[in-house]
Amino acid sequence: MAWRQPSQRIQELIRRGAWIALNPSREWLEEFDRATLSAFPPISDDPGLAAVVTRSNRANLVYFASALLRTPGAPVAPNLSSETLRMARDLVRRGLDVSALEVYRVGHNVAWRRWIEIAFELTADPQELRELLDLAFRSANEFVDGTLAGITAQMQAEYDALTQDVNVERRRIVDLVLERAAIKPERAEAQLNYLFDPSHTAAIIWSAESDDDSTRLDEVVNAYIQAVFKDAAAKPHPLIVLAGVSTRWVWVGDAAPVDAERIRAIVQDAPDVRIAIGGPAAGIDGFRRSHREALTTQRMVARLRSTQQVAIFAEVEMVALLTENPIGANEFIRATLGDFESASPALHNTVLTYLTAASNASRAAKLLYTHRNTLLHRLDAAQRLLPRPLEESALEVAIALKALPWRGPQSGDYSD
């Protein structure tokens, strides 16, 4: 059907609707993200890839609504921006095919339902509604079809370019090992140039920002390897796998015990970089287990939108289990801590230290380098804020306080 210039009245309605669409509520955006990501678990289960897809989907909303604002009713050209093409590269490098693009169709459906709501807010005239919805529907379909066609072509080009890429082959072999597929350990060791016998410490290092230049990320990876390698005089032989444009899987054999403060120093000048570290474990099973622990830790950091840059599985295992359901975790923290949730970090630390010291005030005071009477005064202040006496809820309070620092600034705002 040929496009025609809509009337001035319809153009004005489209512009008003586009302006509303360009200023969505945070709650609607979060609903949009959840709906699109849940449509394809291989994406939602990968925090790095989920972030790329979320940014791309949101960028499409802005792109399309901005086009309607400029030229209401006219066809909208496909969005093949660098953000969109970057998503195509990441999908390919995760081993996903064009079926993953279903997230775009889901996003289109969610956005279309919102446009219908906007249209009914703008006018009650049946003829105006019909034209307003018809023009937007045809324009949106053309836009999505054209964008998907461009992404599909880019993905095919990426497949072709990566066929001979050594990083893809390394990722394929590592996936076989992690999935316990039929590959002999000796063959995998030879192809990866990495031995499975020693103890391994796995890490996942990723960037939370969209950036095609991975130089800074790789600098952090190299600094991390040097920081955890046991023998400073020897040359480390780590295994580094490119899991995506902004994600690296790393294994270091015979690593030293992880020094959290030393690792945090590595990323202090790279605020967008995060490091999730598994525990040391030996052999090929340890290779798998340490990576699973790092992956669990990464998912926790992403799930809670934490601003913490370094997370070590041994320190957050309980928090990771507690926060598998972010909504339930927030409800648990609020119910357990009550008004104490908003107390100062110093008071939180005092109570947690006291509980960790088996509720021994003298021992806790020594750990905090403070006088016992000062400690008791702080505990009294905490007791007044807690919904239940501390002696009746010691375990729950300790768990809630351990989870509290890992929540990002918006973690408490999840809704069903």
UniProtKB/TrEMBL annotation:
One Pfam family here: HTH_30
Domain PucR C-terminal helix-turn-helix, chain residue ranges per copy: 347-403
Protein family according to the UniProt entry: Belongs to the CdaR family.
InterPro entries, per the entry: CdaR-like_regulators (IPR051448), CdaR_GGDEF (IPR041522), PucR_C-HTH_dom (IPR025736), PucR_C-HTH_sf (IPR042070)
Protein name, as recorded: Transcriptional regulator
CdaR GGDEF-like domain ranges (all copies): 188-300
